[in-house]
């Protein structure tokens, strides 16, 4: 299943529209390309809702939310919903931030296929949190498991909680991914990248399988990259190489091990 | 000729004002520095038309066009034209996008020295296209050769069409560059980078020679980088190293081979 | 002293709010993470002054100043001042630029703990300069030593002037750092990164020690990175690895040698 999703992304090269944090825009685009999909990043109200028509999936990430992004995101998500294009909500740093916190709640009405965040973000979005610190979590996924379950039931979205042990649930089924590496937390944009990979996979598979495959893909690639790295800089470079190189069946075996 | 242009960029270190896509701003700036030139990236209406006065060349790239960029670009290109500063138009993703498509046509009135794009973008700008997919082309340069020729005659600009076989024409002379590597399409920002290198070369040479030298420089550096790379991540790093290291005479010989 | 500051950053992992140039946002965030601190990059007027409440230090860098940044920066710096949160002003490209030049002067009223720039920027801010070229300096730190001294006395800030020989003064004490490598000038964002490291250090030490430790940290890491690099691309990757790996005591010994 995981292997089929990865192979399908590489074969079909879906166009993934990414409305994502300025801080990691470049890395997210490179990761989408390394995975075999194709990125598109325009975020303005004037262009993004039109350009999403060409996309096979959409990522909405609220990190470093610009004025352009805040204006363009709601209309683009609404258009994706109308078109039946699957979209992923990554509610980066909800909680303290006064614009993105209500925006994230509003976006739930446009029915994301997947909601992806760290434990603090998922707790906040579910109304049970008390804030992370910036984009960092102060909780582990297990603490957000109940909230993730309730959020999935309430929104009909798959909810993916990233951390040392990633949790994915649609309110009925749940899976965990234990692969990964601590260096993922020492470089910018790996959460955004997981959101973009999830969108790429959602273009070719159902949302639960997509979230599972994307998480496994990134986590196994991170293990390979860490083996080739001398620190966070070379890890980031090697992560792109590994996203491109990793064998789909190896991802499936290692993610389930 | 190619060797002389590259050597002149490294010797004179022209200041290249880049109004370029947010997604690849950092890579473009690093590539300009690696090539031996110097980048400047401010795009607002309040500052860009003033700062372009210090520049030796200007790049206008319409990828991920922000509200700041849409406001600042026309006045900055107009100012460059008044100053006689050579400027390069990179009409990224024209076609579907509702703001940048008419903007690109309007900018032609400010007389770019070089228009650089992929085949779909050149076809669209020439009025003959039916749209790429985001920033990707759905055509090869040969299909855009006639449109490139007509566009060059109509605008008095050099037109450079990138692809597996790059074509460059001023409406009278034409050259092709066959060097390059498929990994150029697996990382973000190589088109933007080619635009910036073209601007750097246009600061020290006539537009036709500049487009030819910049294309050869990037394509030969890409071949060297691919030889040192394990995937798209390490390719991108090695591409910067190769832009700095490659011998100008080797570029000339290998580009013409 | 230097060693203690570096060790404290790694131990306490301060949250550093960075309002920084779009061109190097990603590298700055990665450098902050590599150093052991944590970055936060939101710049809008709506969110940045609220989010700075969670931060342990603030960097305000005026490079590629966006409309969002120009709106959000004054209120965020004012809020940091009210909270007693140390903040660093990096007046990138002041001089020619018509918005950031008066903005930088205005921001001095919000009492930055450290002002960090190249020689041309410090000369301009002190009212003695005639402009750099974009973000580049046309002066060496020694030429700005007197202006730096006067600026420190007038603003009660530590003033750090970067260059081949970095100068740091609070108007009474002065130190120089001779470590470093010319490749620091061949990649984008090393000045912004020095500002962010200075902010990280100012979260755990007094401003003079912070500026000294951050300068030494970056310069010694650059020497290690240059030894591992084949050009500017691999230097940049190795610089992140070295920021993470370098021993605090080695930084202190080598910076003072």
UniProtKB/TrEMBL annotation, chains A, B, C:
Binding sites annotated in the UniProt record for substrate = 41, 189
Tell whether Magnesium is among the UniProt keywords.
yes
Q: Which family does it belong to?
A: Belongs to the Thz kinase family.
Mention any Pfam family matching this sequence: HK
One GO molecular-function annotation for this sequence?
Answer: kinase activity
Names of the cofactor(s): Mg(2+)
Main function? Catalyzes the phosphorylation of the hydroxyl group of 4-methyl-5-beta-hydroxyethylthiazole (THZ).
Catalytic activities: 5-(2-hydroxyethyl)-4-methylthiazole + ATP = 4-methyl-5-(2-phosphooxyethyl)-thiazole + ADP + H(+)
Which residues are involved in binding ATP?
116, 162
Q: Report the InterPro entries cross-referenced here.
A: Hyethyz_kinase, Ribokinase-like
Give the EC number(s) listed in the UniProt record.
2.7.1.50
Please give the pathway this protein is involved in.
Cofactor biosynthesis; thiamine diphosphate biosynthesis; 4-methyl-5-(2-phosphoethyl)-thiazole from 5-(2-hydroxyethyl)-4-methylthiazole: step 1/1
Q: Does the keyword Nucleotide-binding apply?
A: yes
Q: Could you tell me what this protein is called?
A: Hydroxyethylthiazole kinase
Alphabetized UniProt keyword annotations: ATP-binding, Kinase, Magnesium, Metal-binding, Nucleotide-binding, Thiamine biosynthesis, Transferase
Report the enzyme's class at the first EC level: transferase
Give the species.
Answer: Tessaracoccus lubricantis
């Amino acid at each position: 299943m995981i292997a089929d999703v990865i192979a399908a992304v590489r074969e079909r090269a879906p166009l993934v529209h990414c409305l994502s944090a300025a801080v990691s825009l470049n890395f997210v685009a490179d990761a989408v390309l390394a995975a075999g999909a194709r990125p598109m990043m325009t975020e303005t109200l004037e262009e993004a809702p039109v350009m999403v028509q060409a996309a096979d999936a959409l990522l909405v990430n609220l990190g470093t939310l610009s004025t352009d992004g805040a204006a363009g995101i709601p209309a683009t998500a609404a258009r994706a919903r109308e078109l039946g294009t699957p979209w992923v909500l990554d509610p980066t740093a909800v909680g303290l931030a006064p614009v993105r916190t209500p925006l994230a709640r509003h976006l739930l009405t446009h029915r994301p296929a997947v909601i992806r965040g760290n434990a603090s973000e998922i707790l906040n979005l579910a109304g049970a949190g008390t804030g992370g610190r910036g984009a960092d979590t102060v909780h582990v996924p297990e603490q957000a498991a109940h909230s993730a379950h309730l959020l999935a039931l309430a929104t009909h979205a798959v909810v993916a909680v990233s951390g040392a042990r990633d949790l994915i649930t649609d309110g009925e089924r749940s899976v965990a991914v234990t692969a990964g590496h601590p260096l993922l937390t020492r470089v910018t944009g790996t959460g955004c990248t997981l959101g973009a990979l999830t969108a790429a996979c959602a273009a070719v598979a159902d949302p639960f399988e997509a979230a599972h495959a994307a998480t496994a893909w990134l986590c196994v690639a991170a293990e390979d990259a860490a083996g080739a790295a001398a620190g966070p800089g070379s890890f980031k470079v090697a992560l792109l190489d590994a996203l491109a190189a990793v064998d789909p069946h190896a991802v499936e075996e290692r993610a389930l091990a």
